Amino acid sequence: MSPDPVESLPQHYRVVLENERVRVLEYTDHPGQQTTTHRHPDSVMITLSSFRRTLRADDSELDVELSAGTARWLDAQEHSGHNTGDTDTHVMFVELKEPAGHGPRRPVRLGPTD
Q: How many alpha carbons lie under 13 Å from residue 5 in its C-beta half-sphere?
């Protein structure tokens, strides 16, 4: 299975815009739906709906609850997700195609951060 969510999860992800520097994805799901493991590069996530979900990666698990209109940074990561709330999830991801900057890099954190 491809780690690219557009290929492995086309029912949830669609490309809105792509050029040589970024790829913009739209993500939607319904309460109770889950995704298989997929990968995101460094990204900016913008929530278009309020939602609650659980992200899983390796032995880590993180509950995430965000309000509509929130922008968060997402470190490059591989995870699966589960909509554990009672609302649809609607999110835009602005995926960066440029490699991360030089110098020390902090450990990857699962889920979105400020």
A: 26
Sequence-separated (6 or more) residues with CB below 8 Å from residue 36: 1, 8, 9, 80
The CA-atom distances, in angstroms, between 63 and each of 2, 53, 55, 85 are: 25, 6, 6, 11
Residue matched to tokens 């309000």: 67
Contact by Cβ (8 Å): 85, 51: yes
**What is the DSSP track for 13-48?**
EEEEEE-SSEEEEEEEE-TT-B---EEE-SEEEEES
For 21, which DSSP code?
S
Q: How do residues 23-82 score in pLDDT, each as one tens digit?
A: 999 999 999 999 999 999 999 999 999 999 999 999 999 999 999 999 999 999 999 999
The 3-state DSSP class for residue 7 equals helix
pTM: 0.86
Read off the tokens for 108. 């990857």
Distances (CA, A) of 13 to 4, 9, 53, 103: 10, 6, 16, 32
Structure tokens at 89: 């999830």
